Amino acid sequence: MTGRDDGPGADPERAPGAPSNWNAPNIITGVRILATPFFLWMLLADGGAMGPWRWAAAVFFVLAIATDAWDGHLARSRGLITDLGKLLDPIADKFLTGAALIGLSILNELPWWVTAVVLLREVGITVHRLVEARTVVLAAAWMGKLKTVAQSVAIALALFPFPALFGDWVDWVNTVAMTIAVVLTLASGIDYIVNVARLGRAPRGAAGRGPDPADSGADGVQ
Question: Is the pLDDT of residue 158 over 90?
Fold first, then answer.
């Protein structure tokens, strides 16, 4: 007898007083992951024509990004930050971002090399984060957050059918925004590798005080 009844839904591996993985921010993140295939379907519907489905896909993307910021704030303000959330949040971001980039490339609106470069960087670092999670959870650094914002803005501009409304000059704006996003994606990836190498060389017990590797969603923790 422990003198404490955790109830039938308690997590036996959770430390006393730690938030449950089954909390609102993590559930919102899970819904975002599950809904991403539907987003891709909307984007590709009608061949990507600038019609209702294209608008729906663009609005969905913006709302998904907004919920990412909101559930991160909710987790911090309510003390619901969990290691699972720290891992799921960037995975959800990359799943959504990857679906958008692949969809735009399928529609011949974005060069495949851009999609390949971004996805290789994102998948590679995400896999590394999952492996490192066995010993330490790597949270976000400022460059990773900046990269996420740049990607979100560039993809949102590419998704909305603004050229049909405002003219071809919007395509130039989209190109500039996507270029900035790609540059920051590569720069933050290099920064991540440098910081991981620096942490690996730090004396035992001091590694945890090093800089956080540069990758995660806009919030970095959840």
Answer: yes
